[in-house]
Amino acid sequence: MPPKFDPKSPENASLISLFQGLGLAEKSATELVRQPKSGLAFKSLVDEFSLENNKYDEKTASALVKLSASSGKLGPAERGFIVKKIEIGDIKSSDQVTAAVKYAEGNPAGTPINEEEFNKACGVGIDITAAQLPELLRSYISSLPTAPENWAGLSAVLGGIRSGASDLKWANAGEVKSSLETIFTELFGTKEAAQAAAKAQATSAAKTKPAPKPKAAVASSSAEASSSTSPVIPTNIFREGFLSDFHKPGENPQINPKLKEQHLEFTKGMVYTRFPPEPNGYLHIGHVKAIMVDFGYAKFHGGRTYLRFDDTNPEAEEGRYFQSILETVRWLGFEPWKITYSSDNFDQLYQWAVELTRRGKAYVCTCSAEKMKADRGLGKGQPVPCEHRDRPIEESLREFERMKNGEYPEQGAALRMKMDLSSGNPYMWDGVAYRVKLAPHHRTGDKWKIYPTYDFTHCLCDSIENISHSLCTVEFIPARESYEWLCDALEVYKARQYEFARLNLQGTFLSKRKIAKLVNNKLVKDWDDPRLYTIIALRRRGIPPGALLSFVSDLGVTTSESVVEIQRFESSVRSYLEESAPRLMMVLNPIKLIIENVADDYRVPVQVPLHPKVPAMGTVETSFTKEVYIDAEDFREEDSPDYFRLAPGKSVGLFKAPFPVTCTSYSKDPVTGQVNEIRCRLEDTGNVKKAKAYIQWVNVPESIKIDEVRYFKPLFRSDPPPADFESDVNPESLEVYKNAVIEPAFYELSKKAILDARKESEERTKKAKKESSIKSPEESKAVEGSEASKHLEDEPVVTAEQLVGMENIRFQGMRLAYFSVDRESKIGCLDENEATKPGKKDGDKIILNRIVSLKEDSGKKA
Ligand SMILES: [Zn+2]
């Protein structure tokens, strides 16, 4: 029996008093000393960093106690770093200390901790007050792929918050629970009433059919799964910083108070935003931010977002881009409330152009392009008016009519806005409102010979759609003056434009024209070649949409431009996958390992967890057999003291196998000189020593051959690539491994990922269709018999299939890298019905793409 604890013994009393002095309450200080191990751990932390004369508040002191109890594996530098973070109040709660220790444990020894990443991993600076919780929780619930349907879903939602990626996990757990209970009461009535009702229903249902399973139970886990088609949308950028400071709907100034009334009558005070891409190319990584800001801002505030195709240039559009853009927006987790086209408004815009002219605020100018440039000072001087500026209104109206009737050739005439030539802002120098274009338009056919410019169209479409916040990138700052001038000149509702900095990623190659060249000259596979940075390429490579969102959210949204390093992007993807991707054993360059001292039919079932830290992901079963494959990297002919894997006479552990093996001999291929077989002894008798290192393996009889494993490196040899970029393409930027093998659980995992993705996507799509006002192609208003009606098949449509692809199968090849399945693969079992046990089929072709490496530098080695 341990000796009785005496708080008054001199030794204990002095320790208690020391701990009290540091800020602990008497009771906790005594309790700590009563547990000798904890007490000593705290004392040694105090000694290590000479904290004895400090005075903390109780919370800080408790955080230090928690640190002392859990940081045993850390080096002094890492521990010291966390002590500092606790002292300055960055790390407060016990959850944060746990996260901090976990982060520091993963930090490679000898390298300083990256504070920014540390802060993110530990929720530093996230301060969610009780008052903010209801709104945040509602928004969180609405982002779940399957909303809770009753009180039974409460614990799943709480669990999802705790283990998930949302900032809510850093909020006070008690407050979260109580706020959530309030929301559930609003949704489903009181808990007691719901329980009584469920009981009554169960009794009556027992006679007829089984009670429905609460669906919410799976919601939170699938929301985080790496195969998910409904990424969790981070909210921090809308809660703090630039995007949190915007006006409330209706507060944006108008030239006439009536306009505000009409606006609010339409929007009912909701936030309305739009994402307005030109349908003339595939979206690239820079657009992720714009999509997230436009859609996310409205979603965060319970508002609506239009996907508006800015199709005012008839020459630039191509049908395939409409569908691709809609798919991309949805793949990133957002649903347009409505899909519109600037061309829907051509009639209204034309009438406004006439009205503007009538008001004496526009005129038809027939100066040549060169003259117009010269009049505008050639970018140096102040502009001068041309002879048309003060022509009579009637004359301009007549000429505009002639432009409309196709009586002018292209560039023969333009309608210009009569703005302010004395302004310092070139956007105010009588910009062009309408120009002549004789090409037929994708939707309106040959109805128009004149087309509005971006500057004329954009603000007026925002006005028509009652946009409350018109969010765009900083290069539009100077355009804001003309944007507002035009709305005021016509006395129409005026949205407020806000500008944020673009996402610039170093080493990315985004020019449409240049990528088209690479594609046409077959230097890349297609627009979605995983070495490119179009969003379809990122998708094909296997980058999860949630990883892109969390990357943008970690960078934050500000007004100052910066260029982000590609390593930072990859590290963000890596940490996202670290949490969400299951693990499989896979061998890239297999060597056969034969265990000599077991029978030929030796077979031991082994359970391998799919994720070491997420037991909920489950396990898969494999067999440990006489012959297994290991990676060529894990064997050396010459041993050395700092090497812990397999070498002649040396032992190594095979992950989750019951015993380690010791290498007894090996043989080489006489032709290549490469080691091709290793013979080992199973150390299953006597005093088994614990292995110093564990390596992955795949049993030979059940191994699945992978046709191709594709590793990607930067596409160009130089950064940035030279003007003659085509000759700079690195032929080794695509590296293909053709001998890799993987455990049979690959099929199980693939089928589950695809089935889950399909189900989730169907539900999400059903919900989206219900909530949006997107018309089916048949309902949309193509002018009958017109060019547009011939293009009906090009109308983008919302489908469940567009969110599901081979890339939803993502996993970590243990100790190798993160991989996804390439769209060129064929895996027959994915099309079989749910109950059929998945396995290899004739004609299967498995191609894997490496998404990212496991560590920043291991890319060089591979
Ligand atoms: Zn002129």
From TrEMBL:
Biological classification of the source: Eukaryota, Fungi, Dikarya, Basidiomycota, Agaricomycotina
Record domain tRNA synthetases class I (E and Q) anti-codon binding: where: 695-752
Domain Glutaminyl-tRNA synthetase class Ib non-specific RNA-binding: 14-172, 176-263
Protein name, UniProt field: glutamine--tRNA ligase
PANTHER family in UniProt: GLUTAMINE--TRNA LIGASE (PTHR43097:SF4), GLUTAMINE-TRNA LIGASE (PTHR43097)
Homology family: Belongs to the class-I aminoacyl-tRNA synthetase family.
Enzyme Commission code(s) on record: 6.1.1.18
Record-annotated Glutamyl/glutaminyl-tRNA synthetase class Ib catalytic domain positions: 271-578
Highest taxon, organism lineage: Eukaryota
Region of interest (Disordered), residue spans: 202-231, 758-794
Keyword RNA-binding part of the UniProt annotation: no
GO molecular function, one term: glutamine-tRNA ligase activity
Alphabetic keyword roster: Aminoacyl-tRNA synthetase, ATP-binding, Ligase, Nucleotide-binding, Protein biosynthesis
GO BP of this protein: glutaminyl-tRNA aminoacylation
Reactions accelerated catalytically: tRNA(Gln) + L-glutamine + ATP = L-glutaminyl-tRNA(Gln) + AMP + diphosphate
GO cellular component terms attached to this protein's record: cytosol
Record domain Glutamyl/glutaminyl-tRNA synthetase class Ib anti-codon binding: where: 581-682
PROSITE patterns: AA_TRNA_LIGASE_I (PS00178)
